[in-house]
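1st attempt posting a full record on here, be nice pls
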Amino acid sequence: MHRRTARMAGVAERLTVRVPEAAEMLSIGRSTLYQLIGSGDIATIKAGRTTLVPVESIRNFIIKSGG
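the predicted structure (as tokens):
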């Protein structure tokens, strides 16, 4: 759903996702995602023991990668 459409429908846009969902969004495995995180290509936020991936970081990675 387009960002503007989501706002108009009253649906809050998610700012972060967990690692398995981020890997699914990128159509890659978790190990590959962790490699991208380790190399600094994708940012993360630690909330206690949970690792969160900012959706904006995923978007930036796609743009930077030519997608």
